[in-house]
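Journal club prep — side note

Before the paper discussion, L.F. wants everyone to see what a predicted structure for a comparable chain looks like in token form. Sequence:
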Amino acid sequence: MPAIRSLRLPLLGLLVLSAGCASSPGYFEPAQPAADSALVYFYRPKADNPGMQPLRGSYPDVQIDGRSVGQLKFNSHFAASLAPGAHQVRITGLSKAADWEPRDIEQRVSVKAGEVKYLKLDVRFNLSEMNLGQPKPSYLIYLTPMRTEEARYEIRDTEAQN
């Protein structure tokens, strides 16, 4: 019996810690970067088009300066820590980790020490180019820098990626 009690305390602590790391839908509080670095949040919310969500099961690899920082799945978000300065961001399907067919999106982002920025991957059906007989859907895909106020409200309904 003493062995079981000694296991309960560490397991309870682990449970509390993992619950604190999880993002609950409806609430989002951004982490603060270290004084000598910056954070860039990447997020991909649900599309606001009617019906099915485009490319729901597909996800790109997010690369910064040629290095993968994670895959951005549907309705999720994650943060990447960066050194101050200019960086090249690439959303790509050209890596083994990705499951993404659309063309790459590349963008430069500049960050200052202590800064938090937000980049939204917006994936929508291009309804103006789609018709009933079309064999493949058409998409509008953008990587958009977002203002903090807007991003925090959109991110709160997504899931945190580890």
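L.F.'s comment for the group: The helical segments are 2-21, 148-155. Keep this in mind when we get to the figures.
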